[in-house]
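In this supplementary section we document a worked example of the pipeline. Step one takes a protein sequence of length 586 as its only input; no multiple sequence alignment statistics are reported here. Step two produces a three-dimensional model, which step three serialises into structure tokens for compact storage. The input and output of this example are shown verbatim.
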Amino acid sequence: MRNISSVEHLPMGAEFPEGTSLRLRWHRLAAFACAGLLALSACAGLPREGEVHVVKPSPVAEGEIGFVARPPARGATPEQVVAGFLDATAAGFDDDFVVARQYLQGSVASSWDPLAQVRVYSDTQNVQASTTSSGAIRVSVGSLGTVSHEGVYSESSNEATITTDFSLARNAEGEWRIASLEDGIFLSEHLFSQLYVKAPVYYLASSADFLVADLHWYPRKTFPTQAVRALLSGPTDPLASAVTTAFPANTALVGSVDVKDGVALVNLSKEVLGASSNGQAHLMAQLRRTLTSLVTIQDVHVSVEGVALEEDSVDNLTPYPFGSYPLAVISQGVPAVVSASDGSTTPVTENHSVVSLGLRDLAVTYSDTSPIYAALSGDRNKLYTLNATSDPAQVVSGTTLLAPSFDTAGWVWTGETLAQGKLLVAEPRTGASGEVTAPWLTGMSIRSLAVSRDGARIAVVGETGGAVAVYLAGVGRDSAGKPVTLSDPVQIAQRLNDVSDIAWISATDLVVSGSTGAGGDYSLYNIQTGGPMTKISPPSGGIVSVTAGRNEQSIAVLTGNGTVMGRSGGAWRSIATGVSSAAYPG
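The serialised model returned by step three reads:
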């Protein structure tokens, strides 16, 4: 449970009933009013007679929502002051929290840091207020998540509650003002989605061949400046040990980032000139990809202390591309490829002895021409690899191995389900193998693992002491690209009580099969590496395993009757039948 309480309560005389509801009516009325005005203005301009003409829609920019805060009313009660303050904080993104500070007393008004933590709660809940024994007003509401000053979103568990105390005292005019409070603000999930933007900040993979996204969230109005500052500060955990950056040490942003006519103007300190021409091309790729994630920015111009940076070359680095790969399955005991047109399966090998291995839990490499397949033996104590021209080769042995996952460098990952502080990897093309050390896995019962498309992170579903959790860790590699260590993890998907399987669907998102309540039905959830989760309606027939391609629409689910169901818009369709395992690359 996340509990936030103030460190000091100043006495006051007002008493309020326990459980009084602070309903943030103004927030919701403002949203409905905006929607109503838009609808009325649209309808007013609709012609009702005359010829039909073809028209082109005007370009639409990112929507913004604005608020006008009301200052404290004379004679307001302590509860009204707190309610007015909470309302005014939503308008603070437009007025730099000037009006919100009018509800605060003395030095508190200047020392309060509104963006130290943004506490997000569900639209379906009301903020509840009560009076403590010391006379402070205690405000609480169920928590969805918290955004730190650095823009890192931490999801809350289902039971988590945000609780904070406001102590009030009368000022020189006899008016109640807040004299003690925590840094930070409250936002409903709707207002959060309007006022904040999802901001992936891009670093270089260890090989420097492509970009890796580190997900942040920033106020829409200050996104460009904060995103660049985050980029220059370096990646957050768990990516810190798994990626690099082309920016020289101590490179700083001079001033703020201005955006004019869709062009972001970035002024950097002189340290950036220390980068090689190749390094400058790489850092420009990092900057461009980071800033153009907001649709209102189409280009980036960089200067060094006011002088335009000459670009000798432009590097078109992108996140690791996921191609149009076919679905691979195990059909009649043999790895096979599914035809997208009619769902028929074509075996990848004519070696019929493969059937005797009882293969299960398929994985496949990222390859358009000669993919390699990996699968466990029927008793899960051996991992085999094969392709269209080679016989099955045993690359790992163990007691009870995990379903494998391939990374972008061609290493196949597995390990014992009862972890002993390590995972196992093998490279089928060279025959190399090794261990990846991760002390935090010791004693954990692992259910599933999936290496990210960029090879910089791994998601692990594990059970410890009866509690199931999803962990995200960075992958450390040696100079040859061999995975050797995992960083300490961060926990994601904290609103799920149980999880069975997991797969990557983008640079920052995963699909998870799990449930939110003890004994609840399993469903599918889109889990962001640093953001709120969303539910995806599952197909009928139960969920045995999940895999995915390039996005949420490419999710494929193996059901209990051996049918693979694929997403088609908001519905599901049959992709293949009579199979025992299914996998897209990864």
